[in-house]
Q: What sequence folds into this?
């Protein structure tokens, strides 16, 4: 199964006040940092976005949400439609601290045949849906959730057959950090003072 990097950037960034994917950290937009991590793994990368965003400067395919306003699950659905024979190493566009070792752990799971894989939080009380591995063969299940307007990734993962939940140690304090508000950029820079491109 071929694995493609997918960056989900279909949100409205309403709490941030402007497109948070373009917020700069170390002179690189957040989405650019994520793209760089995926390209380090020699993955083809595509962005799933809403039509109001322009990411053409990133020089990779950009696809608009097939069903707008359905959150990350809708973005995964669009990826399944566009690349029906692939699996996806999927990330959201607001995770500037993502690390290569973390992505490599998930990628190994995909290469070993997992249709879906996520990372467990400490003590396994929560499963991080992103970054995660999702196969295009999950399309029908995703479509059923969208049809019922069940958009929570946590609910989607709850009874997902074959889901692999991986432990990963050494991800650091910033690996799953999300930028939702502008003050989050300041918090991130304090946690990760050495900008990585």
A:
């Amino acid at each position: 199964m071929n694995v493609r990097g997918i960056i989900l950037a279909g949100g409205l960034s309403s709490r941030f006040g402007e497109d948070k994917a373009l917020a700069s950290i170390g002179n690189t937009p957040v989405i650019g940092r994520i793209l760089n991590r995926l390209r380090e793994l020699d993955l083809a990368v595509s962005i799933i976005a809403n039509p109001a965003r322009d990411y053409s400067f990133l020089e990779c395919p950009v696809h608009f949400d097939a069903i707008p306003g359905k959150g990350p699950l809708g973005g995964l659905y669009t990826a399944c439609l566009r690349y029906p024979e692939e699996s996806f190493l999927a990330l959201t566009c607001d995770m500037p601290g993502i690390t290569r070792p973390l992505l490599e752990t998930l990628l190994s799971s995909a290469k070993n045949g997992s249709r879906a894989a996520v990372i467990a939080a400490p003590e396994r009380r929560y499963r991080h849906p992103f970054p995660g591995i999702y196969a295009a063969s999950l399309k029908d299940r995703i479509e059923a959730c969208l049809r019922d307007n069940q958009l929570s990734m946590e609910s989607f993962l709850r009874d997902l057959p074959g889901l692999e939940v991986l432990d990963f140690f050494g991800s650091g304090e910033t690996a799953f950090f999300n930028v939702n508000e502008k003050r989050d950029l300041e918090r991130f820079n304090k946690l990760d003072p050495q900008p990585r491109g």
